Amino acid sequence: MSGIKPNMDTRSAEAFLQQFLNKPVTDVRPIEQGEVSKVFSYSQHDEEFIIHFNSGREGFVRERYVHDTFSPQGLPVPRVLEIGRANEDLCFSIAEKVPGRTIISYPEAEIRRILPDLLNHFKNMNEVRLGETKGYGWIQPSGDGTHESWPDFLASFFREEQTGFWHNWYTLFTDTFLEKDVFQRLYGIMMELSTYSPQQRYLVHGDFHLGNMLTDGHRVTGIVDWEMAFYGDFVFDLATQHLWTPQLQIPEMVRSAWASEGRDIPHFEERLKCALLFKGVDGLRFYAKKGDRNAYDSVKAELLRLVD
């Protein structure tokens, strides 16, 4: 499958900005970010900004809530300045550009020197006050989660009836190489393991990898792309880190650092396995929809090793 990302090139993005802002912009550049979005940086009056295009606005509203609620508590989240509709197919958001480079762009030796500061920010994420909000899952404009329980939120991703990107996704079992028996087995194990997660809710980034974190080479200057933020088990963010950079062993780093402070992570292994299965099962259907058989087979092999 092709065309998952929005149809927006640099010239079109610049033209939209000139028209929307009614002021000249310079240095419009694409940023590689995500599989289903288009992102560009640009300058205006010696200030730098980010414009993000996506088919829906829900994630942009979520990012604004995260900034407004949690940046006063110390989270380095960029401020969302504008949310709107670019055309009948695309929505957009404009945010302040965080200084620095992505952590993943640094050599591994330098990344390891930055990790202690990142771990401090991760600890802060897990200690922010959620206020009077309730529920698990996607953060809504009210601040409440979308589901009454954590397992129900996880199950909601894979129900047959879906809207948007995953509408009619069950046809992948018949129209692509997505194997129903493999999928259902892995999904069943994931749901069994979900019962090990705590009742306490945490703020979860949802796409917590080093490409979404910026640094000046010494400290973390910002954590970006909060469109998928939700309430739930923070170990899911550690699973994302492990999938992107397994050589850094970030889940074990966090576990050891917290243990040295007398803070245990109950059922750590079960929760991490649940999170890895969740990410992997979602990846199976994504790569099936995308038509990427090599990526599908690679993820499938890793998941089967995880459970066998």
Q: Can you give keywords for this protein?
A:
Kinase-like_dom_sf; five-stranded antiparallel beta sheet; Aminoglycoside 3'-phosphotransferase, Chain: A, domain 2; Phosphotransferase; 308 residues; 2 domains; alpha+beta; Phosphorylase Kinase, domain 1; three-stranded antiparallel beta sheet; 10 helices; AGP_Transferase
Question: How are the secondary structure elements laid out?
Answer:
Elements: H1 10-21, E1 26-31, E2 38-44, E3 47-54, H2 58-70, E4 80-85, E5 91-96, E6 101-102, H3 108-125, E7 137-138, H4 150-156, H5 172-175, H6 180-193, E8 202-204, E9 213-215, E10 220-223, E11 230-232, H7 235-244, H8 250-260, H9 268-290, H10 293-307
Antiparallel strand pairs: 1-2, 2-3, 3-5, 4-5, 6-9, 7-11, 8-11, 9-10
Helix pairs in contact: 6-9, 7-9, 9-10
Protein name: Phosphotransferase
Pfam families: APH
Organism: Paenibacillus anseongense
Order of helices and strands: HEEEHEEEHEHHHEEEEHHHH
Global morphology: globular
What is the quaternary state of this protein? single chain
Q: Major sheet: order of its strands?
A: 1-2-3-5-4
* Biggest sheet overview: 5 strands, antiparallel
Distance between the termini: 31 Å
- Please, what is the average pLDDT? 94
Can you identify the CATH class of the largest domain? Answer: Alpha Beta
Q: Supply the helix-strand structural class.
A: alpha+beta
Question: At the third CATH level, what is the topology name of the largest domain?
Answer: Aminoglycoside 3'-phosphotransferase, Chain: A, domain 2
Radius of gyration: 20 Å
CATH architecture heading of the largest domain? Alpha-Beta Complex
CATH superfamily of the largest domain: Aminoglycoside phosphotransferase (APH), C-terminal lobe
Low-pLDDT residue intervals, each spanning 5 or more residues? none
The tally of strands reads 11
Beta-strand percentage range: 15-25%
**Can you give the helix content as a percent range?**
40-55%
Q: Count of helical segments?
A: 10
